[in-house]
């Protein structure tokens, strides 16, 4: 056959193909592309399948210049679809027809309208691509439908194709589906008003039957009906949304308008839950079983077998905390400096007050006077601050004096009056603080990763205060003012030795935010300064005492005197030099201490005078060392007789101590008065002597904030990884070692590096047992090999160390300089910069506030909080974080706040019905119900009207209905003609009927096929969506 | 060794009692030498080495610390930002082993990365006089979720492997080394096949 035909010349000419033909070809192409022409069968739908995952994909095709979006929506199926062999096709019911009659997903809680109306799980929609385009004319719509019909027939695709007509908002679709021998038309009617004849079930059934045009309908199979009525509860009885925005109209009276400086405002300004929708469903009843006509209805919602509820949520319920945070983020973008914002802001106490100021002073005077009279000494810090602020109470001061005073007292509570019955800051109850809510335990470990500041710290409080002040007490200017005050307070505290309250005195914690570290640093500086000044006072008095009795230098312990006696002549001369040196030093110190009151000067050794003597001392010591080292192997053990020569009486009793075995052949004893001893170092003795070894008082290492550390580490890294670099690094870091060595030397006159190592690095002191010839075992100690390397850093540093007690050394940590650096850092921050620095604390506070809800959190709340916290943790740790990323966190936080507010609202609505007689079991199910209300789009009410939740809902409706009836009695009679409603229920806001049957169409002898009509009756909308199948063979 | 091929820079820390051989381990790793006269470290020291693990080049900035008690007030500030830590003890010194707990708690306090990878190294296995058995080391590592290896900076044994294993583990730990916002460079997980070369069965992920 083929051979024969090939002889005939047949040219297929597509050059003249019309737009229409191309359009059809394009539809077919898409069908092929998506492999929709492949026949497959799917499992019958199961209940709830429609809440599974829906997938959609879109292509654009054109008809001439008219663009269509072709979108396929389909339910992701769990099972693999099975290809059916060709010959089986006629026997199986097409998936589409299965779906149309399936009753399992009649009223899906969330689905595409097409699947809601027709029950489909897989369909394709063609709709005009341009937003404002629409197919308005019937002819055009028919043209597209014809194209679809041709394409479906050509490809053998069973999946229904729809075309959207009229304006998009009307959601009007016509569609078509073709199978071998059958065709289904999807048709739709959409009206603005409900025709009275079809305002009830019986009218609709009549119409359905008329449409099917089948007189034998009742004979074959009755119409199956599924009905759902939806009731809307808008007015919540006995309940009004109590959250009012805090009143910040802080103008009048004694009430400053500030209730709580500590917590961020929280909650929604309007009820975040606007409506409750109750759906009463009668699934699948036969048409004979129910009467619903113009005069009477069986459909009482209280009798409905299935109830389900859904919430309608307010779109943007204006949550307070989110609003505050967003506002604060806007602040972070401001560019103004302090000077620009507060041009007339004078810091000095110059007498420039205006009469108005004095008047204001008078207003605040009584309180101030009271405070001042009862203030403790430390509270002068703030009293000073308040005097400062009084001067600023000019017209342009952005924060009024009284309020500012309150804020300052809140931040610096150490100035608070002890017998405070003034309405100042209420301290937080401790029990409350320790109580962790459920969410807190959930995200506790995440909160630890936040780089912010402890909750009770001044930094944290300042951040919250700043946020409140910015939003409610004067905006940017007020923030500038508060920041100015804060910086001033910091300087005041530094200058007057008052610790910053609510802040630990430990070294800067690098797990905290930079600004917190800076404040900790400042506190460290204050602490050092206080100690230093105390020491200075002590030393001053001590020196006075010393100069009174010049002989006091050698008034050491009696043991010391013994040694001085035994020491040889050369050393004595040496000691004399040291003594005089000491005295010159001390007098220098004395004069220094007297002259300098600003303490910038620290006790420095007189380099020139001490150098020669120490040098000789050192050379001596190194001599001793070499001798000692050479003798360790030979002399030490053989000197038992030499030991007996020594005059020390304790020697025998202490023979267990190995060092006592070694005679002080050349005891390098210095008559320097030992200084700066902390305590004895165990029972160690200075080698070759009987003097106990003392741990010296050492300088504490310099605290560092992370930016300092970064700089330092950078310097160290820049030295590279060569050995020279290593050497330089060691040298740079040896200041601490040097200081310790000097302190050690001062505390242990006559010590050697060995002694030092025994304290400082015990593992570098190696002791070995050695058996004597006479059988006795002695222990020989020596420095480890690495300590003995010639010219190693330890030796070098030891050689250069002078015996100077810690308090006379050059400070390793210059508190004055560091404090000034911190103060400068703070003062140089623009209000916006300060705000950025405070952001981590604010985020922390906000998240904590979210956690303060008592209820068990819903999974979605936990999820969003976890996300927010994780993100916050990440951006607070990354110094290069942008404000944008903070915005994202704030978005998360706002969302979580809305969640919490919703939960509170819905609980409040349901909880008021709780009676004490209820068992805990009911309460748990209620809680579960409330939680699923928050989580799921629609929640079934167990037991419908008779269940415990159903009873509450019934009561809510009844009360609302009663209230509205009381309001408009006149309207009530007009309800006569309205569709039926249960006495306690309002008129249903929506009614849905699904009518299904199976009839032969179009002719009585046709194959019976499923028919379906979905009717939606709303207040101002009437929609019929029908899927009518007909036999294409036997018509 | 081109710079653009380097996947990431990792900060690694070496801590442990004084004289357990931290600097020697580092020197063996970076320069493949052993100096019996290695001076005691003062403060912190620093070395850089580029290491290739599974075809990924990682630049290692290794911070070597002094073990002396007094330096401990100074060195922890350098723990910041480290992704990996090598905790060293001396198998010939029981005391250096018993102090490990203190070192770990210090690490907990000062390390900023949450999931810092920890490796326990028992050094000086060349010595005859052993005071800490391999089993004890293993037990400790298991208890604290660490990698464990015994090594000798002197004989070279285990040193290279220790560093490689640590780096590999860091790279396999998501969120530890990636810089925020840069995606893409994700390594294929090669579970089970991570043990390569001579160290098969030697290192154990506990």
UniProtKB/TrEMBL annotation, chain A:
Where do Low complexity bias regions lie? 607-621, 658-673
One Gene Ontology cellular component annotation held by this UniProt entry? Golgi apparatus
Keywords per UniProt: Cytoplasm, Endoplasmic reticulum, Golgi apparatus, GTPase activation
Query: Cytoplasm among the record's keywords?
Result: yes
Listed transmembrane segments = none
In this chain, composition skew of type Acidic residues spans 595-604
Q: Looking at the record, which segments are called Disordered?
A: 587-676
Where, subcellularly, is it found? Cytoplasm; Endoplasmic reticulum; Golgi apparatus, cis-Golgi network
- Compositional bias (Polar residues): 624-643
Q: Which GO terms describe its molecular function?
A: GTPase activator activity
Major localization listed first in the record, in broad terms = cytoplasm
Q: Which domain of life is it from?
A: Eukaryota
Family (UniProt): Belongs to the Rab3-GAP catalytic subunit family.
Classification via PANTHER family: RAB3 GTPASE-ACTIVATING PROTEIN CATALYTIC SUBUNIT (PTHR21422)
Put simply, this protein is called: Rab3 GTPase-activating protein catalytic subunit
Automatic annotation (TrEMBL), chain B:
Protein name (record): small monomeric GTPase
- Asked whether the keyword Hydrolase is assigned, the reply is yes
Listed A to Z, the keywords are: GTP-binding, Hydrolase, Lipoprotein, Nucleotide-binding, Prenylation, Protein transport, Transport
Cited InterPro entries: P-loop_NTPase (IPR027417), Rab (IPR050227), Sigma_54_int_dom_ATP-bd_1 (IPR025662), Small_GTP-bd (IPR005225), Small_GTPase (IPR001806)
Top class in the EC scheme: hydrolase
Q: Does the keyword Membrane apply?
A: no
What reaction(s) does this enzyme catalyze? Answer: GTP + H2O = GDP + phosphate + H(+)
Kindly list the GO molecular function terms attached to this UniProt entry. Answer: G protein activity; GTP binding
